[in-house]
Structure formats: structure tokens, C-alpha cells
């Protein structure tokens, strides 16, 4: 079984500043994938970034990057040069590659990010 | 590609009525997922299909809920009879899952269901 925990219900950041959203997970699997999804007020779930557990290099997508600490089971999202359009609920999620978690996403509780102009 | 398509986008119904939610996954994807999102419980996986076959329905809350996937391009989630506590946003997502490689899930816009 997998669990994902986001300990920050809400975060705020000034426009153009940097913010980091925290996520910890627990899994018994040796191979798994981690994701960050963004859900703006339109409620559409949008994939932000993806990390494969076997890759040591942290994933980056433009202004979004992750700090993946496998031993600590930590997967934080850093948003640089924050923009008003980044305001949304952010979900951390994991999926396994075997057993009952194969192909299934387990989500954290979400973090609401507010961006102040 | 049009992405995952869900219909209707909004549904308002009275308690006891049957509700059917529809989903068309992305062409070429072999896995389909139904989720429910509420303030209290967050995002919950209800059921997931792989190659049109239900793999895990352990998240389906009770017998009032049923899901089908008659072919690779269509799935339905039915609630009969509906109850006020079923009010939520229901998402459909699809992905391509093959062997050890898991691919990210792409979500539809969701159906907001209100049961009065």
C-alpha cells in the first residue's frame, strides 16, 4: 500500500518569488513514480511534473522543479518566479509498478497555493 | 488529441434517481480510472480498468455504484439510486500502462454532481 502526505494545507507566495510545497510518501515498492498535479479553480487536473524513483536526477519543467530525497521519502515541488496563474490546489501523488498499486495513483490531501501580486 | 472527454459537466438530480456519467478516454490509452473528489475525503479512486477489464473496484462505495467499459473508447459510472451524500465532482482519467512502465494519468474536466 502507498500513502502520500502533504503537511501544508495552505501556502502563499509573492509574485516573482519562490515557494516550495512539501510532500512525503511511504511505499513498500522498489520502483514507483511520483507526480505533482495542479488543480486551478476550473477544477481541471493538470500534470505539472513527473519523477521516476530509479532516476537520481531531479526532474525540472521550466519554472517547476522537484527535490527528490529517496531515502527520506520526500518529494517537494519548487516553483520559481511565481506567477498569478500558479494559484491553485497542488496535489502530490504516487503510483507503483507492481501488486495492487500497479497503475493506480494515490493522492495527498492537497496544498492550496495563493499568489499575491 | 481532444483529451479525456466527460459528460455531462454538471448534473443536478433528486434523491432516488439514477445518474449516469460518461467518459471517453484518450485514444490509444489502455487504462481508465474513475475518481471522486469531495472536500471531506479528497480524491478517491473508485475503480480502474485495464484493457476494458475492471482490475480494482475496491473504492466503489457500495452496490449503488456500478461502472462499465464496453469498449476501449467509452466508460460509464452509474449511481442507482442516488443519495445526497453522492454529491461530488467525479473525474475520469486515462493512461497508457504497459509492463514496468507507468505513464501519467490525464484527467477529464470532471462532472459536478448535485443530488438534492
3D structure, described in words:
The complex is a heterodimer of chains A (117) and B (116). Chain A is an all-beta fold. Chain A has strands spanning 3-5, 10-14, 19-21, 24-26, 32-39, 46-52, 60-61, 64-69, 74-79, 88-96, 105-107, 111-116. Chain B is an all-beta fold. Chain B is 0% helix and 57% strand. Chain B has strands at 5-7, 10-13, 19-24, 31-38, 42-50, 53-56, 65-71, 74-79, 88-95, 97-98, 101-102, 106-107, 111-115. The mean pLDDT of chain B is 92. The A-B interface holds A 31, 33, 35, 37, 42-47, 50, 91, 95-98, 100, 102-107, 109-110 and B 31, 33, 42-43, 45, 48, 50, 55-56, 89, 91, 93, 95, 97, 100-102, 104-107, 109-110, 112.
Descriptors:
heterodimer; A: 117 residues; mainly beta; B: 116 residues; seven-stranded mixed β-sheet; four-stranded antiparallel β-sheet; 13 strands; 0% helix; globular
Query: What is the percentage of strand-forming residues of chain A?
Result: over 45%
Helix-strand pattern of chain A, N to C?
EEEEEEEEEEEE
Summed up, the helix count of chain B is 0
User: Per DSSP, what share of the residues of chain B sits in E-state strands of 2 or more residues?
Assistant: over 45%
pLDDT under 50 segments of chain A (min length 5)? none
Arithmetic mean of pLDDT of chain A: 92
Determine the number of helices of chain A (DSSP H or I, runs of at least 4 residues).
0
In angstroms, what separates the terminal alpha carbons of chain B? 36 Å
Radius of gyration of chain A, rounded? 14 Å
Q: Determine the N-to-C terminus distance of chain A.
A: 41 Å
Oligomeric state as shown? heterodimer
> How would a textbook summarize the main sheet of chain A?
6 strands, mixed
Topology:
The complex is a heterodimer of chains A (117) and B (116).
Chain A: E1 3-5, E2 10-14, E3 19-21, E4 24-26, E5 32-39, E6 46-52, E7 60-61, E8 64-69, E9 74-79, E10 88-96, E11 105-107, E12 111-116
Chain B: E1 5-7, E2 10-13, E3 19-24, E4 31-38, E5 42-50, E6 53-56, E7 65-71, E8 74-79, E9 88-95, E10 97-98, E11 101-102, E12 106-107, E13 111-115
Parallel strand pairs in B: 2-13
Antiparallel strand pairs in B: 1-3, 3-8, 4-5, 4-9, 5-6, 7-8, 9-12, 9-13, 10-11
